Amino acid sequence: MQILLIDDDIALCELLNEYLGAQGFNLVIKNDGDAGLRAALADDFALILLDVMLPKRDGFEVLKLLRQQKLTPVIMLTARGEDFDRIFGLELGADDYLAKPFNHRELLARVKAITRRIEHITAANKTQNLLWHDIEVKTQSREVYAAGHALLLTGTEYEILHLLLKNAGEIISKEQISEQVLGRRLAAFDRSIDMHVSNIRKKIAEHISDERIKTIRGTGYIFVYGS
């Protein structure tokens, strides 16, 4: 699979190229935001690793412009302790984030979690479509409709909504969502699931006024018919 790495740290890029290359991934490397955005729009990558601090155009702007045209999975590379960067990146449509400096094995685990999802999609999933009143999920095309209107969801948002809808009426914990969708255990103070659910709610709310995903405080979420 081909991965686009957008990062201005030359030494890190060389290291990741060697490390991920040994795992069977083909890396295309760009060292500034403008070049990275052009590459991301010109080709279909399995995944984009996107640094926040970039010359010419920062990672947030790259992601914002990318999301206007493509839903390529994106893992943001953020500075350790910068909670704002992580939350803002998720709000803009990032699939996951990883704080620098990171363990290369942790990066590989995040990459594999997303690429496994892509392989699963390519395998022509023949699961029946899901319909819960005015929300419909077409599993083969991965299209989602709210009151007949198509929702533009990222891969992670789709997987979370699919999981909740498949278990409609049941409480699904944040830990379950993190492990089944992101492929990792939920860390303390990790707000990634909350942000993804918030994005899904906003997109559904554009077409349906009743709240479909309710928060069960201290536990997780439940998909319901409405209020």
From TrEMBL:
<dbReference type="InterPro" id="IPR001867">
    <property type="entry name" value="OmpR/PhoB-type_DNA-bd"/>
</dbReference>
<protein>
    <submittedName>
        <fullName>Transcriptional regulatory protein CpxR</fullName>
    </submittedName>
</protein>
<dbReference type="InterPro" id="IPR058124">
    <property type="entry name" value="CpxR-like_REC"/>
</dbReference>
<dbReference type="GO" id="GO:0000976">
    <property type="term" value="F:transcription cis-regulatory region binding"/>
</dbReference>
<feature type="domain" description="Response regulatory">
    <location>
        <begin position="2"/>
        <end position="115"/>
    </location>
</feature>
<dbReference type="GO" id="GO:0006355">
    <property type="term" value="P:regulation of DNA-templated transcription"/>
</dbReference>
<dbReference type="Pfam" id="PF00486">
    <property type="entry name" value="Trans_reg_C"/>
</dbReference>
<dbReference type="InterPro" id="IPR016032">
    <property type="entry name" value="Sig_transdc_resp-reg_C-effctor"/>
</dbReference>
<feature type="modified residue" description="4-aspartylphosphate">
    <location>
        <position position="51"/>
    </location>
</feature>
<feature type="DNA-binding region" description="OmpR/PhoB-type">
    <location>
        <begin position="127"/>
        <end position="225"/>
    </location>
</feature>
<dbReference type="GO" id="GO:0005829">
    <property type="term" value="C:cytosol"/>
</dbReference>
<dbReference type="InterPro" id="IPR001789">
    <property type="entry name" value="Sig_transdc_resp-reg_receiver"/>
</dbReference>
<dbReference type="InterPro" id="IPR036388">
    <property type="entry name" value="WH-like_DNA-bd_sf"/>
</dbReference>
<keyword id="KW-0902">Two-component regulatory system</keyword>
<dbReference type="Pfam" id="PF00072">
    <property type="entry name" value="Response_reg"/>
</dbReference>
<dbReference type="InterPro" id="IPR011006">
    <property type="entry name" value="CheY-like_superfamily"/>
</dbReference>
<keyword id="KW-0597">Phosphoprotein</keyword>
<feature type="domain" description="OmpR/PhoB-type">
    <location>
        <begin position="127"/>
        <end position="225"/>
    </location>
</feature>
<dbReference type="GO" id="GO:0000156">
    <property type="term" value="F:phosphorelay response regulator activity"/>
</dbReference>
<keyword id="KW-0963">Cytoplasm</keyword>
<keyword id="KW-0805">Transcription regulation</keyword>
<dbReference type="InterPro" id="IPR039420">
    <property type="entry name" value="WalR-like"/>
</dbReference>
<dbReference type="GO" id="GO:0032993">
    <property type="term" value="C:protein-DNA complex"/>
</dbReference>
<keyword id="KW-0238">DNA-binding</keyword>
<keyword id="KW-0804">Transcription</keyword>
